[in-house]
Structures are given as C-alpha cells and as structure tokens.
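**Sequence, structure tokens**
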Amino acid sequence: MPMAMMQIAPEQGAFLQVLVKLTGAKKYVEIGTFTGYSALSVALALPADGVIDACDVSEEFTTKARGYWAEADVAGKIRLHLAPATETLEGFVKQGRAGTYDFAFIDADKPSYPAYYELCLTLLRPGGLIAIDNALWSGEVAKANPPDESAKILRALNTTITTDARVDASMLTVGDGVLLALKK
C-alpha cells in the first residue's frame, strides 16, 4: 500500500494503550483514523464503557478500519465521523461536549494541526491528555529553516505547545515524534 507510511508504528499503538490505562481514559477523540490501527489500539485498552469518536474524511480507508474493528470486536466502542475534523470538533463543542474528553490523538493533515490542538484542548477535561503524532517530522522541525510547509507548521506548533501555560508538555521520540500535552 503506497500510503502505508501514514500508519502509526506498532510501538505507538502500544504507547497509546499505556497512556489510556495510565489516564483512566473512557472518552477518546481521534483526528485522522486512516485504516483504523490507532483507534483499534485504543479501543482494546479502553474499559467496556469506553467510547471513541474517530474523525476522518476518507470513506476508502475507513472502510478498511471498520473491517478491522469488527474483526477485533471493538466496533461498538467506535463512532466514525466522516467529515472535515474541524467541523466535527466544532460540532462537539456546540453540542456541549467541551471539557468531557479524557484523551485526544492528532494524526491528520498537518496544516490543520494548530486548529485541531485548540479544539481538542477545549474538548478535554482538566487532566486530559493530547498526543500529537509526527512532532519531529523526520527531524526536519529541528532545522532553523524547515524545508517544507508541514515541517514549518509542526515546528511552530511544538513551540506554541511547549510554551502554552494551559498545558504541561513533553516531547518523545516514539515513532516520528509524539508531543504530549497534559491539560492543567
């Protein structure tokens, strides 16, 4: 599959599972579902009454995801939202879901990461956790003048988050870099 590089690494799936268990998460929102591996990993770690709101725009890839979720018997925990994630997340806020999520994972189109971060921060309860994938962008974010737009966006977001007084942040070198932001 030519786009397989978009999939999180197995160690990231295991890491997300540990984070779910450490935080006692029951309500998880995911931005960027692709073929469903990250949602599947989290669903397996959530308690029986846990729920996932998975946001994506691709019917093609999420059809594969639905098959994997059904095979693993976790499809009942996952609500798939096929629409631009900013629209979905803004809808959640309008529905009164602000401050109700325990955990968020962002792994989608890089230009929208800043908007996703702000919306997820609104949706998270105090003590909730955001994990942001591709924070290192193959090391490109460390360059003074990153070579592409995604690297520039991620570099700026990393700086924003690590200086954001609303969160405690930590960068990890798991996969292509995971930036954690714990809401105060």
User: Anything to note?
Assistant: The longest strand covers residues 124-133.
